[in-house]
Structure formats: structure tokens, C-alpha cells
Amino acid sequence: MAALGVILGAFGAHGLEETFARVGEKAAGWWETAVFYHLIHAVALYVIAVGAGFRRGPWICLAIGLLVFSGTLYVMAVTGITKLGAITPIGGLLLIVGWLWLAARK
């Protein structure tokens, strides 16, 4: 997951300039936000998975949250379909739930 985040970050920086220009001024920002959250949560998923006392529930919330949050932003950035922005907060909510669940230690 982290390798994919790096690949997508590099692809956005070096291969999507024309796409971002076509989609609009917010497209590059959407992509950057998606990559930022993608990389942070990829590291968190790894740490949770290999750490002592693997916790499936928080891991699943973070994984699905990452896919929904970053995924919708990636698609918005390359297509300009801003209606996906209505789905993005669901991913964010799952990320929040995953972190709070992890912090609860139960």
C-alpha cells in the first residue's frame, strides 16, 4: 500500500500535469491530499499489522477509509466528477473511527 502511494505521488507530480490543467485548478490539490492521507495510513496499516496484538477492527476501518477517502479524491482529480466529493467524507469518518477504535485499546 505504501509503495502504491509513492507510485501515485510520483505519477501525479510527473505524469498528470495536463490532466490536472484540463480538470481544473483544484485537481492537483485533490491528488496531493489523497497521496498524503494514503501514505500516512499505509504506514499505520503496516504498523498495526506487524505490531503485537494485531487488531482487525481498527485495521479494517483504516483500510476501507483509506480506499474510500483517497480513492474518491484520486478519481475526482483525474475526471473532475465532483459529485464523488459527497462520498469522500465517509472515508474520512471511517479513518476517524479506526483511529479512535485503535486508541480505545479494546
Individual helix count: 5
Biggest sheet character:
none
Structural class: mainly alpha
How would you spell out the order of helices and strands? HHHHH
Mean pLDDT: 95
Quick one: overall form? elongated
Radius of gyration: 15 Å
What does this structure look like?
- The protein is mainly α and 106 residues long.
- It is 81% helix and 0% strand.
- It has helices at residues 2-15, 17-23, 27-50, 56-79, 88-104.
- It is elongated.
- The mean pLDDT is 95.
Short précis:
The chain has 106 residues and is mainly α. It has helices spanning 2-15, 17-23, 27-50, 56-79, 88-104. The longest helix has 24 residues, at 27-50.
Describe the SSE topology:
Blueprint: H1 2-15, H2 17-23, H3 27-50, H4 56-79, H5 88-104
Helix pairs in contact: 1-3, 3-4, 4-5
Quick tags:
5 helices; 106 residues
